Structures are given as structure tokens and as C-alpha cells.
Fold each of these.
Amino acid sequence: MTGTDGIRPSRAWAWLAAAAAAALLCAPGAASATGRCGKHPWCNTRLGPDARAALLLEQLTADEKIGLLAGDEPFGVAGGEHKHTGTSDGVPRLDLPTTYYSDGPVGPRQGRTTALPIPLALAATFSPQLAFQHGLVAGNEAKFKGNDVIFAPTVNILRTPLNGRTFEAYGEDPYLDTRLAVGWIKGAQSQGVIGDVKHYAANNQEGRDPSGHSGDPGSPLGGGSEGSRYFVNEHIDERTLREIYLPHFEAAVKEANVGSVMCAYNKINGPYACEHHHLLQEILEREWGFKGYVLADYGAAHMAGPSLRNGLDFEPWPGLAYGRAQVRAALLTGQATQAQVDDHVRRVLRTLFAYGFFDRRAFRDDDSQIDKPAHARTAQRIEESAITLLRNRGILPLHAKRLKTVALIGAGADGFTTGGGSGKVTPFTFTTPREAIRKRLGPGVELRYEDGSDADQAVAAARGADVAIVIPADYLTEGADRKCLTLECPNAHGDQDSLIERVAAANPRTVVVLETGGPVLTPWRSRVKALLEAWYPGQEGGTAIARVLFGDTDPGGRLPATFPARESDLPTAGDPEKYPGVVNEVFYKEGVLVGYRWYDRKRIAPAFPFGFGLSYTKFRYSGLRVRAAGTGATVSVRVTNAGRRRGTDVPQLYLALPQPSASVIQPPKQLKGFRRVTLGPGSETRVTFPIDRRALSYWDTGANRWRVARGCYRVLVGHSSRSIAKQATIAVGGASCLGATARVPEQPRPGAGDGGGHPRGDDDGPD
């Protein structure tokens, strides 16, 4: 471990290097790497990554070690054709190759790429299987653009939908976030690249710009000055950290074996995230057993001494905190030790050995290697599974043969909608909704298109049409939060809410298809016939939207975040200490009541709840069974397609945990399982949810451990967080619970930081 004592790691690894060298002398024959390692002792693939790293570390000079702490690419970080997001030049003398880094969560930001649906759209699929495919495509293209590490996935929890990076992550629930993060990392790392889960931890706001213009398209990054991510200090209690903001990172380490972790800009309870002993060393390294390396977000490293002492292994850019002069000064003044430098370099080297970096040829930067048609099909499948039907008053699916005139209106109808920052990508190809709808309608149907910039013309086009389809779009970006939740923040496309109101008044058969990066207000929702959320749909979004509109496929999405009825209902609303902060101090007063937990506890009716999404068919649940299983339980329910069409459903398991004391507030329910199933008309299947010890636990701050409280646990199975179809009760620890269908015995006392595994939410099978 990197630590403040400094000496023991160096001695341990010197001993390991000596032992490895001795083993080499005694070995009957060394197995040399077939890649680019050379003919050095550390190239023996019969040795483990620890031994190989120790041997290489022993041969590095003090100056070479310092040089490996920081990146070497000062100008190309903005991306571009054949430009990596970051580099570490290696040590040619010892055949240590250059390491190349790339964004990101939507695909490589390095010239053109397969523009995948945004991660929040992926979250709407509720499918770890599709998360694997999303990660596989992004990882494959990062590889074929010559990169070794991909800066993804982004897993920060949606604390407020005003956050400019809402579109980059997986929504408001830590369990959903966990399952998708694990799937994505496994998919990306299956391609030979190293994943980089980010941003550790609680990077939940970018900063608000009072003018509201920093989030406009084309504006420079980082303009959100109030509660800026660069300076904000977030006051978060330990229970909230453990239950809400850390589980997805824990699963990335323990289940997905992620190779690297990116520490965030912000401070947490005082220290910067990249200088945070508790987060980086006590939790990440010691409790979770992380053996990869920690790298800083760009500009998130500050001082060499605190970073070296507290767990930062690598600064990709700009290389100021870990510049040679700063590191030497920290060593000379006793702020850090050579042993700590050695340990950081060792962690980087060990990771490179563990993930095959030395034992393969360098990845070539050549787009011709990419299977673009196959990746396009994956992007389309994900988007079709993400599109979420929020309202349907008998108008969808549309029937092309019954239509003579269609009005198509809005900024999203004839362009590529995406966010800004590290999630901004340029597609290889793109089919607009306008093109796809035109093709799907066929000849003989008039398509009237208006971009919505002139509301009078849009109304004229809508009036008298058989159906009016409005596709508004918003814009979210890294570096600045949005000023409000309406479609006018930022006001890049005019007054889109008024446009929808006027079109709906002119044509009672109005369908709205949102292309947004997160939840928005929908004040007109009761005045339109149908409402779909398509998110930022990626390069195949137009085709996917058309197929859903015309019933070629079922809208498969469920909301990964609550859509509020009013902005004043947000958990952070009305209190500047909660958000955006006062003098860069933010207090997480809501605690564990994030997202739907807040709305449930406060009994606030949202516009559309977490987990909600309609189908073109109907699903019925029956036969709920709850059985004790070891120190946990299993829950199963029969799902029946009671309609006349093939469709997709996502049954969801929630638990209501007992309140062990007055000071421990429990949400009314917490997601603990889900299954995505696709069934033909009249078909049924039984889905099973495992409940392990961790699912029954809360973080006991006083004892510094996960704890299962004695009491009655309600089991809730439903279509969404607000639509519960079946209920049961589990009695835990000898509690007397009326009508309990299962009894779980007293739990063994876990050690600090131990809470068992994570319940899974894998697909029952392919869609």
C-alpha cells in the first residue's frame, strides 16, 4: 500500500524483486513475452504481475520513476483525428512502451467513431447485457484507434438533474448504476483495453453559471463558477457515501476487476479527492483490495506531497503536480518519500503487466479495423431498448398505411443531438429522424417538416395533418450545470415548451419525442397524445425512433431517473447550501434520500417515477414466492404478456428495510433487483431475484461496517418505484412479523467494510 510510513512497501518490493530474480535463475526455462517487452527478466510470463513489476521497478533510475508519474501530452487532450487524449511516453531504454489514453463514455473522442446512445440511455435499458455490448464497442474502437486505456465508464450518481454531466452516467440509483458499470467494464476490458471508472468520488455537479450561458453549445468548458467542480467541498456523511456514492466503484473493483480509477476534481469533507487518504487508501486499496492504479482527472491533481502520500499514482495532464520539479521538491522537503514514489510507479507497472500491455503488440490507430456495420447494429439495438414510452393515449404505434399527411417539427428532427465535453463524439454516419421517418412512411405520404424556429409556420404545418410529431432537444455539457429544467435551459433552440403547447393546440394528435440528456419538465404532457423519451440517441437514433414510432419494435426503456413535476420538488431545491453551495461549501443534507427515495419519503408525486415505462402490450405479475436461502433469500414472480403483441418488460424488486433507530432514516423502498424480459403474446416466464446479505444491510457508522438489522423487511415487486404489484414480508433475526413468508436467521458479524456481494440484475436472455 502507498502510505505515510513509506518504508515498508519499498522494502517489500525490493525483497520481491530479489525473490523473482532468484526464481529466474532456478527456472528450467523462461517463457518470454511475444509482444514488445524485449528480452528482459520481467518479460518472463511465468511470473506474476507483482514479480514482473518489481523486477522492472528495480532497473528504473530515480529520474525515470519520477517521469512515469505524469503524462507527456500537453496539447492533444481535446481529441481529434489520430490524437490521443493522453500519453505516457515510457522508458525506451528498458523497452517500456508508450501508454495511450482516450475518452470516453460514449465512444472514443478521436476523430469519427460509432456514436453510441449516451450512458443515461443505456441505463434506461436496465440491461447489464447491453451494457457489456456498449462497453465492448467503445473498448474495441478505442483499441483500434491505438489506445491502451479508456476513460470510462462515468458512474457518478444523479444527485440533481441540473448537473451538466447527467447524460454521461447511469442515473439516480446505486444498484442500477452498479449492475451497468460492471457490465460495461467487462465489455470494454474484454477487448484488451484497460477501463477507468470515474470520477471517484461524488463528482455530482459541474458548477452553476449565474448568466446561464456557460452551458450553451460551443461555450468553453468550466464556466460554472458557483459550486465549481474544481473547488467545491462536499460535506457527506459516511453512511451516505457508503450507500449512495461508493457502491458502483466498489463493484467495479471487486466484480469487474477494473484496471484504473480516476479521482475527481472536488473535495470531500475537506481533502481533494486526489489527495484523500480515506477514499484512496483506507477504502479503495485496503478494504476493497484494489490492485490497479489511480489517475487524476485533467487538472484535478494539486500538490505533489499530499498526492504522493495519499494515493494518487498518475497525473495524465497537465503534469504540474507530478512535474519533475514539484516531485523533487516534495522529496527534498520531506513531504514524501522515495518509497512512496516507488509504490506509485509499481502500481502502474503492475497493472500494465496484469492486463497484458507488455505481452502483445501495440494497438494500431487505424479505423479500417473497426467493424462499423456491426457496431451500428449494436448502437441501434441499444437505442431501441432505451426509448421510453411515458404516455400513450391510443395513438402509438402509428400505422403508415393509414396516414396521408405527417407534420414533423423540432430541433431534434433533422440533426445529431449529443452533449459536450468528454462525451462529445462525431459519428461515422448518421441517419436523422427526418430521414428515417420519411423512409418508413413510404411514397404517397406527405411529410411537412419545420425546424421549430418559426412557431407560426410549425403550427401551420401541424394543422390538418393526420399526426404531428415534435422532436425537441436540449444540450448538456461537462463544465457547467444547466440553469433550469425546462427545454429552454440552455435556450439553444428557442421556446420549445411553448412550441409544443401551440402545436398540440393546433393538432390533437400530437406526439412528442424528447431528445434530452436527462430529466426535464413536461408541463404540456397532459395535452399531447403520446410522449417518448429518446435521450441523446446516438448515430442510429433516427432509425430507432422511427421503428418505435411505427411499432416495428417495442419501446424497451424504463426511466433511470425521476422526472419531477416541478423543479421545486428536487431534493436539492430551495436550499443553496445543498446546491450549488455557499462559498463552495455544499452540504448533502438529504443524506440517503436521493432520487425516488426523496420523492417517496416526502410523498411528492413526480411527473414520471423512477423505473417507469410503458409498452405496446400489457404485462401481469402473479405467483410471488419468497424463500429463505442461507443468510439471504430468493424472490420470484411469474411475468405474463397479457396483450396481443410481443413486448419487453422490466419487473423490479424493491426492499423496504426496517429502521433500526430513530437516527437512521430509511427510504420507503430501495431497488435491489431487476430483470429485462421479452415475451410474445400470451407467453409467460418466472423471474428470480437473489437477495444476499448486502441487500439487507445498511451502513452502521458507529461500528464502521455493514449491518443487517433485526426486523421486518417488506418485499415489493412492481413495474416502477410507484407501481407495486406484489408484496411480501421477510422476518430477519428472529423478528416477529405478521404474515412473513420467509424467515432469515441472525446474520454473522462482518468485519469493517465487509458486506457480502452485490445482488445481480443480469438479463434472463437476449431481447
Amino acid sequence: MSAGSSSVDLVALADHVEQFASKTVVVLGDFVADEFQFGEISRVSREAPVLILRHRETQLVPGGGANAANNFAALGAKVLPVTVVGHDAAGDALVAYFRERKMDVSGVVRVKGFTTPTKTRFLAGWAHTVAQQVLRVDREPQAALPDGVRQKIARILRAKLRRADVLAVSDYGFGVASPELVRDATGRKKALVTTLDSRYGLSGYAKAGITSATPNEAELEALHHTSIGRDVAELERCGRETLTAMKLESLLVTRGRDGMTLFETPARAIHIPIHGSNQAVDVTGAGDTVLAAYSLALGTGASALEAAHIANIAGGLVVMKRGTATVSRAELLAVIRAEASGAGA
């Protein structure tokens, strides 16, 4: 496999980011509530050798597909989410969050008896110290979605896609997105940019009309039952096989402090170094930021390489923020323009 050039025109990147606000994106996937319980360590319990956390505050923010939707909105796009949440506190909070931000939530289906996936992180620290995560508790749906709900999601998806430039699939394994659903949707609307971030079922979306996928290195390793580490040849083998098997136009593999690797047709690997510091503050939800920036760039007509660079910059910005965060279009433009000015000086 040949290694291509990773250079791009920064002014062109800024032009693509400018167009983000003109795009409509349907986000199909699992909405997750990311809950953070903050407290101060008071003492060790007499009941068991565990710390007692004196509760200070609780924060609940969009996670999973909801964080992807939040990132698309922060980047200026009009977002049409298609998802399922329960009639529970987490579901109420997510719907209220997006209503407050004027997002169309008519595609959010409320289902009785369904548990909105919730990841509760307990963060402990003393005054004037950085809180550290000491425990995570996950609440997940205990049953598959009923057939009637699946059919309703399919009808909503078909309706929303009539107005869309991009379909972004955020599959965290909780049952909202499926290869069959995506295949039906992409078959009905041609020339639709369709991107995929699938935590567990990447290969299941082969022949589903996916334009490009954005797995991280660990997901690629799990798919191929291998370990990549520093073995670039193994990375390229896994990337090439995935690109071919899934019939993708491109595949963007995120690699943490090693940056990203882009695979395109005809098969070539382009290694893109990490943008900014390699000392990330918090990588929570960074994959959702990459999916949003990459998808929107492809939707504006950017090449896969240009889109990968835009996503790389966005990812480098978001990992310097604590918690589940987003990057705004203004932030992204400011960094790209500053680098363009420096390059031209």
C-alpha cells in the first residue's frame, strides 16, 4: 500500500467550514445521557474500605449519539435527530436540553419501559484539586426495541432524509441504528453522504450504502482480532481489508496520540499527525466530534483528505476540554485561519 501526501490547502479548509451552516444533517443513533456526580472526599467509610464522597453537584450532558448531534449543532449545521429515549429522568433531560437549543426533536421517540442509556461517572477531589473519576455506573436498556417502535423509526428516518445533505449513523449498540435500516434509507436517496461511527458492529454495515466510517484503532483491532500498537503494516492491512469489505469510499481511523490514518480508493494510506498537544486533558466523546466535523466537511464537497484534516483539528481542540464537550464552528475557523496566516507569513 502506498503512503500518500497529507498536505492540504488551509484556506480551502476554512472555506468548507464556512459552509457548515448551510447543511442539514440527520443523526440516527443511540442517545446516551452522560451524568457526572462531583463531590469531595470526606473520609474512609467505617462500613467498608471505601471513600465517602460528599456530593457537591450533578451535571447531565448529551453523550453517545446525542453528543454527536450536539457537535453537529455546535459546528453550525441544522440537526434532525432520529432516536429513542425512555420516559425517565435521563430521557426528559436530553429532550429538554435540545429543545432549549431550538433543535427539532420531533424525531425523538419516547418509549415506555425503555431505559435511556446513562453513564454516571463519580468524580472525587478536594478543594482546589482536579477531580478524578473513581467509579462509573452504567444503566442500559434490558430488552430490544419492539417491532412497532422500529417501524416508526424507519418512517421518521425516511421523512427526515428528504431534507438532508448528510446522514450520520452513531451506533453505540443500544438498538436504534441497524444495517437494515440504513440500507433501506440510503437506497431510497441517492447521492447522500452517509457516515458511520459504530462501537461494536462496524462490519455489519457492509453493503449498507456507507460513504465513510470513523472507527478508532481499538475498534479496528477488535474487528480483525489483532493488536496494532506501533505496527503500521498491521494497521494498513486492517484498514485496507475494512475499506474493501465494506465497499467504502474512504475510512478514517483515529489513533489517539498517533493522530489519524485515512484510507481511500484506490487503496492508499495517509498518516496525519495529531493536531496540537499529545497530552489530552479528556478524550470523552472525542470520536463524536470527529464524526461531526468529518461528515459535515464531506457534505460540503471536501475531499476525504480535506475532511480528515478538519476532523483532526476539531478532535485536537475537543480533547483539551474536560468532560463531554463540543467544538464550535467559530473555534475551528479561528484555528484554521491562524494556521493559514502563519503558513503564508
Amino acid sequence: MLHSRREFLVAAGAGVATCAEGAIDRQALVRRHNPVLLDIDPRSPLSVGNGEFAFTADVTGLQSLPDLYEKTVPLCTQSQWGWHSFPAPDGRGLADLRLENFDTYGRPVGYATSAKGQEKLFNWLRENPHRLSLGRIGLLLDERPIAREDVGEVHQILDLWNGELESRFTLKGAPVRVRTCCHPSRDCLAAAIESGLRGLSIALDFPYGSPAMNASDWNSEEKHRTILSANARQTATISRQLDKDNYVVRLHWTGDARVEKRGGHRILPHGSQLEFTCEFAEGALPSKPASWAETRRASASHWNRFWSTGGALDLSGSTDKRAQELERRVVLSQYLTAIQCAGSAPPQETGLTCNSWYGKFHLEMHWWHAAHFPLWGRTALLERSLGWYASVLPVARAKAHQQGYAGARWPKMTSIGGRDSPSAVGELLIWQQPHPIALADLCYRAHPNRETLERYRNVVMESAEFMADFAVDRNGRYVLGPPMIPAQENHDPRRTWNPTFELAYWREALGIAQKWRMRLGMAPVKKWADVRQRLSALPVKDGVYLAHENCPETFTMKNYDHPSMLAAFGVLNGEGVDREIMRRTLHRVMRDWRWAQTWGWDFPMVAMTAARLGEPDMAVDALFIDSPKNTWLPNGHNWQRKDLPLYLPGNGALLTAIAMMATKWNGFPAGAWKARWEGLRPLLGV
């Protein structure tokens, strides 16, 4: 069941009463980290949104200077429902794709891993559907685009407490003020423009769909239609048609203005429109348009409630010079994950800012995106996307059945419909499989009642059924793989078996599933219990845990990408883990890992393991490892590389690590660190 926005607005206000060392001045905490830009920074545009919809703005508060941002962070307007597909090549689809067979202990199992001889179809299935940028809203001066040299004296601030972006600048020397916000329960942007400059107006421009990072094709005017379907005194409705995909847009304003369509895909209001809203919808629009004043009030009310409830961390009493920066990252990560990762489907790695991997979401990242919400007293924000799994359960069952397995096998890279995307790597990942079980259990810990159990029971049971069937009984023990690729993706699927993290995750998730059966009054499944009991031991060599059982070169040739063996004791409770072996593994990772070739969630993951082992100095040091992948921008985003300019799993991982460090494991060093917290829950139950 997908949760409605109304449920989100009500439920998100329910925080936890737990508090340490007195009340925190939450407004002061939040506002001291309001992002402020004093010049154009194409790597750090600011966004407003609500989890279902987001709008990313330049320093004008709108999208007036798109060319300056195009190669860094494109200025997009995206939603959970806004997808587009090119026509299929020769009318073919997934059923026409030839699979590559992998020997699975004498049984051939097909995977969509090879493009050879079918490149066109393979690539089409990867790129479609792709997330769409719904439109661009920018300022014009005398009906012409403004230029970089026209803009000066920039002072832009994102007021986190109210969810409002205020942009002050000069345009050809004249002062301009733009305020921008997003309605908390509608796909609606609102803005107010103040200026005495004559000839200042807005324009709406609409692109064709694209799988590229900017989610826009501005060079194919003939492939889509923009229809001004209604044009009244203060409201205009626009219908959009892109191949078989359609949506509607409503522009509403105060003052006198008339709207005309200019060229193929520009909507241009003339006259006074100093306050306006622009609302997008896949189907019918709400009967009454929202005004600027109404949207602004709703935004402030929503964000005041968001920050006043749930978790908070105050490090202002710390003397360590890194404390202020860590606190900034934590505050901004709460905002960014709320507007980017709290929708009715799992988020893509770049949320609703711009496209990564064609706009599709990676389910192995869902835990990092959303596990922190219950830990920060905001379980409802996880439940919005967790309900998506039930909606695609038939697709996951069909995939498992096609491969000869029981239960449901979750895809790796997918979209709203749940179809997996061909990939030489993604098709063979398995660590996304236990995620729905672990996430559902976090929800149960927050709401331990029958309703929670019934809501997720089918997803939990079908996930576990596949996991037990995937394990192979060999020589008195159960093994995982081959074929498989672990979380650390730099391994040959035909030569990989028994990765440390996946073994531990299999054991823990099957145990959780059995507990759910008991809570529901159901008998335990003997096969699940047998797999747990006889699952292979975690692989060890030279006193440290290995990436997988067939990887003696873990710390020499394979010491890059995710050091995922650490997650077995930090992310997970660590059943079957030897603490001292894990401690030696942690120290070896800190010494020998190639940190420039890691990812943003690796640093918090290492911190979690260090905290669990009682090494708080190392936990904090891990959060500040010097690596390009540990870059945190002024807007709070975790930069990774040129084509991945933000990485929300890094933000979510930080929040998960902080909740763990603050609540249970003394993860902050004594002396220079003073951590005051409210409303946080520990991740682990041990």
C-alpha cells in the first residue's frame, strides 16, 4: 500500500520523547545552518520540495540561468510520477531479451547481463522509463533570457525552519527579491517577485524527455506537444503530451496578466504576476488552485512541525573544530532526505534533483536512503516508500519464478513498475533482498502492533522465502553463490561465494522473518531455520574478515569500493561475528583501504563499526576521512564525481551513524565532544 501525503503530514509530526541533558533550542540549531550563497555556485544550487516533488533553483530563486548549471547540477523540476519512455525499438520488450545463463551448482539460471548482439534492446531497457524534468521556470527581462553578467550582489539564503528560499540580487543594477517555496502536500511551486524593474517576467519552458542527467531534451520540439488548454484571468492550464506519457500544469497568479504560448513549448505571461504558483499533476489537478500566500503558510507550518518533532543533535558545546561542520551536515541531511527521499517510491541516488542512472532507483541503496527515518522519530517517512514493495510483489515473484526460485526476488535498478534493468553487475547483486525485512522491522519497533505486521507480512515472508531458496546446501553447509556479486561490486560473479556482509545479513533477516511469523501466530519455517543454523561461517584469513570466501587478496588487490565486511558488525547486530577479528579488520581497513575509490556511505558505515567496537575516536575520524567521495557542499549534498554531483545515500548513512553513535555506543569521544540529543532511537537491538 502506498501511503498518501495526508498520512505523511499527520504522522510525520509524531516524534519520540526520549531526551538527554535537557531541551535543545531547535530553531537556533536549525537556523545556524541555513545555507547562504553570496555568488553563483553551479555545484551547489538549492532545492525546495516535499518528498514527492522538488524544484532546484539557481541564485535567482528560479531556473533563470540554466546553462551555467547544465554541466554541474542541472536545474530540474522532478516528481515521483514524472516518467517518460521512448518508443520501444521494433516494438520489442523485456520478453525479447536473451538471457545469459550462469551455472548454479549444475542448474542454468538466466540473467539479463549481456548486450552482445542485442545492444539496441538492452540499452533501451536500461534507459526506459527515465525520469522527466517537468518544466523550467525562469525570469526574463524584456522577454529575453537573463545573462550571467546581468546578475550581481547575490545574497541567497534557504530558511530551513520555514522551508523558504529567499534570493536577493541585482539585475542590470536594479535590486530584485524572489521568495520560493513548495507546498507540503501538492506538486506545487510558489514564488513571489519584488522589483521595480520594468520588463521583468517569468516563462515556463517544456522539454522532451531524456535519460540524461538533466532529464531534458531541448532539441526535439517536434516530438512532444504543449497545449494551452485553458486561459482565464488569473489561471492558465497547460496539457503536455510526450509519446504515450501525459501530464498537466496549472499556472496561477495574482494581479493582471494574460498568458500566451510562444513557439512550440514556451508559456509566457504578460503583465503583473509578482506572485504565482505552478502546479503539476499526472492526472486531474485539484479543483482549486493554491495561491502564493496559502502555499507559503502551509510550507512554514509543515517545516516548523518537522523541525520541532523527531530527532535533534546539538554539538555546540564541543571544542573539537570538526563539530560545527558535522552538525551542519546532520541538519542539512535531515532537510535533504525529507525533500528527496521521503516519497511514495524508493528514491534514485540523486533524489528529485537530477537524473542518475536515467532517474531509476537502486534498491540496494534504499536502506541507506531511509533506514534513518525511524531512528530520528520519523517512521512515517520510511513507510511512504516501503509500501511500494507490495505494489510490485507480482513482478518480483515472476522474476524469482523465471529463475527457478521460490518467493520474490527484488530488482536492483528499477522504476515505479518494478521491472529490473539489464546490467552486467546489477542483475547479480543480492544485498537488496533482505532490505524490506530489515526496514519493516524498524517500522515494527516504532509501532509494535498487529497493523504493522499485517501491512508488511507478505513482503517479509516472500523476501525470506527467496533468501532461503537461494542458499545452496553443499557438504553440510549452506553457501551463497556463485553466481553473485556482493555489495563490493569489483568481484567476478562466477568466482564469488559467501561474502561476509551478505552471509551475516541472510542470517539476521531470516531470523527477523521467523520472529514475524511468531508475532503473527504462525509456525516457524523449518527450511529457514535450517539455513540459519547451517549457513557458512564468515570467512577469515590471517585474523581478519575477507570480502568473500574466495578473496584472499581482499586487502591487497581488492581494497577499494565498499569495505562491506565491516557492515556485519554495525549495520547488523553481528550474530556469528567475533569482535576481535572485526576489530582487526577495522584497523586493517583504516590502514590499507584506497579511500579515493570508495563511496559516500562507506565513511558512516566505518564509523558505525568503530562505535560498536568502542572506538569513538576512530568513529569520528572515519566521518572525516580525506577523500573526494567525502566532499560535502554548501547545500549539504555529498559530491561523488562529475556525473554524480550529489549522493543521498551518503546523507542517509550519516544520519543512521549519528543516531547509533549518540544513543547507545558512546560513539563520540569524551572531552572535546559534547553531544546533546533528543528524539533519537538506536539502530541495533542488542
